């Protein structure tokens, strides 16, 4: 008999190590060897396959932008909501993991009762003719033997769900950084357009005064004055729209920082230079993308959770064994409570074996397998979309730079043309319509150049977002906040 008893612990240890269902293997992201866009004709600001700059907003060398991003990362309400969801997932994981350890309870109670004379036995021995006291206290322990790895797979799935929540928060943070930088760049672009419009307004007012002087001298007509006045009114009419857009963007930044309306006007209303990219910037290598982009990491974690859930579904087909024990005291007199004669105990295993479930267990298993297939396809879709997004943004960045440089030349030539037209008008070589036409062309090219310059910076922000850069510097506060 001794060899048989010695074999039992070994058998139990082997069964405890059995885990049903497929093991998760991280899928291949099929990353290309290099970025195809880097092989194209480089623009003025060139991307390099160097390690990605984590605090990419500092490459714009704009202290105000850096300060706004830091404040947004601390105060944004969407980010705080994502942090709360992360705390919930970690608490749920803690609850699920508790099934791996025995549960121990201590209880006690007192009751004054009277049983029926015609019903069950009366513990008082008085056949239900009088009430009795009942004192009891119990120490109870139970533990499920995880023979088939059901609980281990549940914990594995819960860990993956926590990872999903972590990357959801990282995705919110990544979008927050890009949105803050994007709104700030748009704000500076609008303010640059305000400066351009006001400068052109002064030029058009000068032209109006010139035409009025020439009318008094008899060398111009009322038509020239009317056209000059219309030009002044037309340019001045642009200001309210630009000022309203400026206020909108300041409020948008305030909302990202969880500030009330108009709270940032004092620090942002003063125009400043638009953030521009440096000549060289790093974007990393394609193989690192799957370790940076939160959506790819999240899709992989969802696939992991779906894979582990298959093991849980398979374990439900097998018997479950729970060891339980109860030790305590029970007496009808308080003076007897705790005495040796008032002791009681119960100990033994409980076996549960599914016999007939009407296809429920098989249906759940098929559901989990189908969910895993969906998660695997979704991972492929997320990765493929990421490659397309990065390739498109790199092309956009190069094209935006070329357009900006061409518009810069157009602005320079239009300035020369306006000076020439004004001189020729004074000399009587051309009529005032030529001056108005050239000035309109200059204003349009200046506005387009401002917009194209903003588009370059916006494209770079979009590139950093698509590369998954920016959340890493805030990873330590993320862990602290989530654990607190």
TrEMBL record:
<dbReference type="InterPro" id="IPR003423">
    <property type="entry name" value="OMP_efflux"/>
</dbReference>
<keyword id="KW-0472">Membrane</keyword>
<keyword id="KW-0732">Signal</keyword>
<comment type="similarity">
    <text>Belongs to the outer membrane factor (OMF) (TC 1.B.17) family.</text>
</comment>
<keyword id="KW-0449">Lipoprotein</keyword>
<dbReference type="GO" id="GO:0009279">
    <property type="term" value="C:cell outer membrane"/>
</dbReference>
<keyword id="KW-0998">Cell outer membrane</keyword>
<keyword id="KW-0564">Palmitate</keyword>
<keyword id="KW-0812">Transmembrane</keyword>
<dbReference type="InterPro" id="IPR010131">
    <property type="entry name" value="MdtP/NodT-like"/>
</dbReference>
<protein>
    <submittedName>
        <fullName>Outer membrane protein OprM</fullName>
    </submittedName>
</protein>
<dbReference type="Pfam" id="PF02321">
    <property type="entry name" value="OEP"/>
</dbReference>
<keyword id="KW-1134">Transmembrane beta strand</keyword>
<dbReference type="GO" id="GO:0015562">
    <property type="term" value="F:efflux transmembrane transporter activity"/>
</dbReference>
<feature type="signal peptide">
    <location>
        <begin position="1"/>
        <end position="21"/>
    </location>
</feature>
């Amino acid at each position: 008999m001794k060899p048989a008893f010695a074999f039992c612990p070994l058998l139990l240890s082997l069964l405890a190590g059995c885990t049903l269902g497929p093991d998760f293997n991280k899928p291949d992201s099929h990353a290309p060897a290099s970025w195809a866009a880097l092989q194209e004709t480089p623009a003025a600001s060139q991307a390099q396959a160097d390690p990605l700059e984590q605090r990419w907003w500092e490459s714009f060398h704009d202290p105000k932008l850096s300060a706004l991003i830091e404040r947004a990362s601390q105060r944004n309400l969407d980010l705080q909501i994502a942090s709360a969801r992360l705390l919930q997932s970690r608490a749920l994981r803690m609850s699920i993991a508790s099934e791996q350890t025995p549960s121990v309870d201590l209880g006690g109670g007192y009751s004054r009762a009277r049983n029926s004379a015609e019903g069950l036995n009366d513990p008082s021995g008085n056949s239900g003719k009088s009430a009795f006291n009942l004192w009891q206290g119990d120490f109870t322990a139970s533990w499920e033997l995880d023979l088939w790895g059901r609980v281990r797979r549940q914990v594995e799935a819960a860990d993956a769900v926590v990872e999903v929540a972590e990357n959801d928060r990282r995705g919110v943070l990544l979008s927050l950084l890009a949105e803050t930088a994007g709104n700030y760049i748009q704000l500076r672009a609008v303010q640059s357009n305000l400066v351009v419009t006001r400068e052109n307004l002064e030029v058009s007012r000068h032209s109006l005064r010139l035409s009025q002087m020439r009318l008094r001298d008899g060398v111009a007509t009322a038509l020239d004055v009317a056209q000059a006045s219309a030009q002044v009114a037309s340019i001045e009419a642009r200001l309210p729209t630009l000022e309203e857009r400026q206020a909108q963007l300041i409020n948008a930044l305030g909302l990202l920082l969880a500030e009330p309306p108009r709270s940032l006007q004092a620090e942002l209303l003063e125009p400043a230079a638009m953030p521009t990219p440096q000549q060289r910037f790093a974007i990393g290598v394609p193989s690192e993308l799957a370790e940076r982009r939160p959506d790819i990491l999240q899709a992989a974690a969802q696939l992991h959770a779906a894979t582990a859930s298959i093991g849980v579904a398979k374990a439900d087909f097998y018997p479950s064994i729970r060891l339980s024990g109860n030790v305590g005291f029970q007496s009808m007199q308080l003076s007897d409570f705790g005495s040796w004669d008032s002791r009681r105990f119960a100990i033994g295993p409980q076996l549960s074996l599914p016999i007939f479930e009407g296809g429920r267990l098989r249906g759940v298993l098929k559901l989990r397998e189908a969910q895993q297939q969906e998660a695997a396809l979704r991972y492929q879709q997320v990765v493929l979309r990421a490659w397309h997004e990065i390739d498109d943004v790199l092309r956009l960045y190069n094209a935006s730079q070329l357009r900006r440089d061409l518009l810069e030349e157009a602005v320079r030539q239009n300035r020369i043309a306006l000076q020439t037209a004004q001189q020729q008008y004074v000399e009587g070589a051309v009529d005032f319509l030529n001056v108005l036409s050239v000035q309109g062309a200059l204003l349009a090219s200046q506005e387009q150049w401002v917009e194209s310059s903003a588009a370059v910076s916006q494209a770079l922000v979009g590139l950093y977002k698509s590369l998954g850069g920016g959340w890493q510097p805030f990873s330590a506060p993320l862990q602290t906040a989530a654990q607190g």
